[in-house]
Structure formats: structure tokens, C-alpha cells
Amino acid sequence: VAVEVGAITNERVISAAQALERWTYRHSDAVTVLSEDLAENLRTKIVGRPGVGGVDKIRVIPNFVDVDAIRPVDRSTAYRSELGLGSRFVVMYAGNIGWSQSLDMVLASADALRHRDDIVFLINGAGSARTELEAAHGHEPNVVFGGFQPVERLAEVLGTGDLHLVPLRAGLARSSVPSKSYSVLAAGRPLIASVDEGTEIARMVTESGSGVATPPDDTAALTAAILDVADDRREGERMGASGRQFVERWASPAAIAEQYERLFEELVARRR
Fold it and tell me: For residues 124 and 92, what is the distance between their CA atoms, to the nearest angstrom?
């Protein structure tokens, strides 16, 4: 990701990092990755190289989310009151405010929906791009910026949003699986993933029925999807419930620990 977004451009540094990466894969008994996209990335790097024992060492084990700590709560949270959001429909982005996230697209969508007094956009978090974005958009009546909160308030903060966004710039979703997606689903809120088609988060949202996947950097598609959920609250509630059921079944600590336990047993048996 650092190379793809241009954070690292020195060819010698990139070559050294790639060599270290390949060495690590070769000398590991197993490599776990968060998605099938990342597994495919690894396969291209270890197949056919001398001394490499094939791709059977790769295991896809996704992130987990603490489904006991993060539960659905009533939307009328104390955090909503603190930010003066009232009863408006809150479209929330929560997390790192950096250059990998298409927050300029999110704010362009907010501008397109400025006429909707019942919808407000909440950008919640911190990062390298926050100062610039807040200076440009913090005065707008339908945009609010909030800061990171103590972990004890996570369920409350997530519950403040009626709809959550995961926007990644084109090309990044194959090498990134935002863990906040699982937290949003645990909170029982619908999710719009503005990511590359066919990638892990897009598949998860679609297959679990927990939200909508739209093309990356497409303001019109994002705006249309937001309106669909905002104007059909019952469908949004159904999506939120489906997401909660999905993480309880597939991404709880117990479910993920079970997968690691099977992998450890396999490795021990192989050594014996």
C-alpha cells in the first residue's frame, strides 16, 4: 500500500523491502492473510521460486471483532447529543483520515446533498488529511468533524451513525481490508463500501446483505446509495441486522480462534 499510494518511491528501499518480504515467506511454516485478494498476492510471490514449498502454507483467516463489547445500541446516543446532530440521519466515516481514503469524494457527496436538511455527514477520527479537509469543509452546515473517543465508547460512537462508509481509493482494496468494517457490522449498522469491484470488503458486504458496494471514487454512485438507505430506514435496519448475524457467525473471537487452533494443530502434526 505504501508503494501504491506513493509514500515510498526510492527503488533501493522498495527492492530491499521486497527481498525481506520474500525471505520471510520462504522461512515461514504458515502465512495467514486477511482476504483471498491478499492470498493471491502472496501466491504470485512464492510460486516457482527455488526452495519454496508451494502455496499450501497460505491461510485466509479474517479479522475478528468483539461481538460482546460492540453491540447494537439505540441511535439516540450521548455522543450524538455532544455533537449537536439532533435526530438527523447520520452518514458516518469513522477511522483514519488519510490519503488512502476517498474522503474528498465523501465530502463531494455531502455537498450534493446539502439540500437535505435531514441528512448530516460525520467525519470521525484523526490523520494526516484532517486539518486540510476540516479547513475546507468544517463550516458546511451538513458536515461535522469528531475526534477519536476512548475505546469504552466505541459501540456508542458507531451506534451514532445510521449509515457507515468505507471509501478506499481505486486500486487499494486488494491490498487492504479495513478492520472497522467488522466493527460497523457488529454495531448493527448498514455499510456502503466504495471499493474496487470483487474485492474482499465488496464481497462481504454484498454476500452478507449488510449494505451496498459502489465503485471507488464515484461520487454519483455513492450519493445514490446513501439516498437509497436514508429514504428507506426499514431496509437499512434489515441490512444492519444481517451484518450483525454475519459477524456473530463468522468473525467472532471464538470463530476466528477456532481457525487458528486448527492451523496450529496442523503445524504441530507436521513437525511430528
Answer: 7
Exposure class string for 35-53: b at 16+ Cβ within 10 A, else e:
bbbbbeebeeebeeeeeee
Q: Nearest 5°: phi and psi at 126?
A: -150, 165
pLDDT in tens, 80-103: 999 999 999 999 999 999 888 999
d(CA 223, CA 112): 8
Determine the Cα–Cα distance for residues 4 and 39; give it in Å rounded to an integer. 18
Residue 108: burial class (beta carbons within 10 Å; 0-12, 13-18, 19+): middle
pTM comes to: 0.88
In this structure, what C-alpha cell is assigned to residue 48?
516457482
**CB-side neighbour CA atoms (13 Å) of 125:** 17
Identity (one letter) of the amino acid at 28?
Answer: S
Q: How far, in Å, CA of 93 to CA of 98, rounded? A: 12
- Cα 37 to the chain's mean position, in Å? 15
